[in-house]
Amino acid sequence: MGAYTIRRLIFFVPVLLAASIVTFLALRLVPGDPALTFLGQQARPDEIERWHKDHGIDDPLVTQYFRWLGGMLKGDPGRTLAGGQSIGSEIKSRFPVTGLILLFSFGFTMFFGVAFGLIAAVFQDRPADYVVRVVSVFGQSIPNFFTLTLLILLPAIWWRYAPPFGWVPFWEDPWRAARQVIPPTFVLAIGSASTLMRITRTSLLEVLRADYVRTARAKGLGERLVLLRHALKNSMIPVLTIAGTLIAALLGGSVILENITSLPGLGQYTFSAVVNRDYNIVMAMVMYAAIVVVSSHLIIDLLYAVLDPRIRYR
Amino acid sequence: MSTPAATAPLETGVLQGQTRRRITPVGRFLRFARRKPLGFVGLLMVFGFITMAVVAPFITPFDATRSVGRPLLSPGTEDTKTGKTFILGTDATGQDVLSRVMQGSQISLAVAFCVVLINVVLGTLLGLIAGYFQGPVDYIIQRSGEVWSAFPQLIALLLIVSVLGTPHTTGGNLFTIAWDLRNLVFAFTIGAVFGGSRIIRGLTLSLKQNDYVLAARTVGAGDARIILQHILPNTLPVIIVTATAGVGAVILGEAALSFLGLGVAPGTPSWGQDLSGRNRLFFREAWWVAIAPGTAISLTVLGFNLYGDALRDMLDPRLRGTGRR
Asked: The whole model's pTM is what?
């Protein structure tokens, strides 16, 4: 498994390189001069030229790309086009916010997805099953920006209460930071938990019909042991696969969540960079997203082997 | 518009190779309604949505893009000057909320159907080629899909729209809207094509092993003929199911992008857009401005999801466990 992990880690390199090259080229092929965006349309030609020189945009594309790559290898994603601030330090201060959002929303997704999937499968075709299924179809259909808007709107209408949004760094006041993050991440998780619940239910129903479950029951194991030890564990493989794709979805969701609740995380940073066409930030954020997604896929592949010892990676 | 999807469940018998009883289309329709009541409700919702999008320009009570009354009138208020009633109230600029919601369905429909249509054609083609020929072609298609899937969808969409620019549309019929929004259509297409092709590829790999493929080859059929005549028809149920689920997903994606202000140009009636921008400042006083478009998106996507689930159950039991993205 060690060798496999290393090989998969090596495979990160071509994927990330390809993603960075595609993004880089796409950003440079955009019609319009970025200098005009940041200097204003009435900028004089000599100003524009100096701006190009300052930001290294007058060099050949290959030189520019390798300069960026060299910086990245040293862990420096460069400086913003807008004011020349360090992108690295901005990421460092914003990461805890998004990290907390991803952690909570993914935690809620896994917990509610698996728990309700289990309930629905155990009570198949009974009222509990129908309720869970209908709720999950609704959960998958309502867009997260609408539910998040309602989260802010409804308390304001019903109780004239506005949730206090305003980020405090986690380590200064963990309780207050968690209180900021828990309600919106819970709401964000509704959609992904609904998806996961459906997978859990179908996968578990299949496993519950397997011979070894009947054997486990026949030899007199308690129902709880049969469910949790024998059935649930074996039904987790497709659940994990979908959970992997949900991480990417939650990453997109964090952009929307931070936009609505004005939590100062990386999602907000990405969004404003895209709107302002600050390409150095966009490059850094695409890399961040790619790394999160690719490594979560790797972790999930490794978890397969933990869940099912028959799966061996060589 | 709805023909491929609407007739789909009715062909179940044919596709599953059962003996074919002669039943009228109406009879099949009723049978679908009886067996899958929720799916039938979904179908009705889908049908209502499509009808609304097609006839919206003719039946909106007011001009959706102009201020027609005092701002933030609550639902059902009568304008004292003109004596006209605003059933769903007015928004921050005095535009009629009902008209905007009706008109907004056009953008959702135009984008979603174009994207799904292109995806079905391209995704199926790529999947068939990759699965049938395997080898280097397959490798290239698969790896490109993997690189692409390293981006979270929303961030990839943001990137594409920022590169291509935010599209403007001045309305009109569905076709001109779709053409105006081609950047958006393109952005959604890139992402979804690979996902669709992967499913078709897997299916092609297994269909290829069937004896009838061997038989066709024995009697001298070429690759093109085998793919089109023997493999493609067997992938149809899966194509129909993924396409139906895809419509809902694209509607959600387009709304999210417009919500962030990067979908359609400001001022255009669009469900995602109406939940954002200047309207947000007034949601606390005027909840109806938020509830109306939000409910419209939710119900539309719910319709596609319910119908899609019923289709999945009837057309392709194998797909039940795989979920959707």
From this structure: 0.83
> Which of A73, A41, A36, A76 is CA-nearest to residue A57?
A36
Distance CA A82, CA B76 (A): 48
A198 touches chain B (CB under 8 A): yes
DSSP letters for B136-202? HHHHHHHHHHHHHHTS-HHHHHHHHHHHH--------SHHHHHHHTHHHHHHHHHHHHHHHHHHHHH
Q: Is there a contact between B150 and A290 if contact means CB atoms under 8 Å apart?
A: yes
Q: What is the ipTM of this complex?
A: 0.82
Using CB atoms, pick whichever of B147, B154, B256 lies closest to residue A15: B147
- Top pLDDT among A65 and A4 is at A65
Closest listed residue to residue B311, CA positions, set B4, B124, B39, B16:
B39
Q: Which two tokens stand for residue B250?
A: 């694209």
| Per-range mean pLDDT, top range of A15-24, A58-67, B3-12, B296-305 | B296-305
Max mean pLDDT among A109-118, B161-170, B239-248 falls in A109-118
Q: Mark yes or no for CB contact B262/A275 under 8 Å.
A: yes
β-pair type (B77-78, B85-86): antiparallel
Give the chain A residue whose CA is nearest to the CA of B256.
Answer: A145
Tell if the CB–CB gap between B154 and A256 is shorter than 8 Å.
yes
B283 neighbors B289 (Cβ within 8 angstroms): yes
B305–A140: do the CB atoms touch at under 8 Å? Answer: yes
Q: What is the structure's pLDDT at A63? A: 85
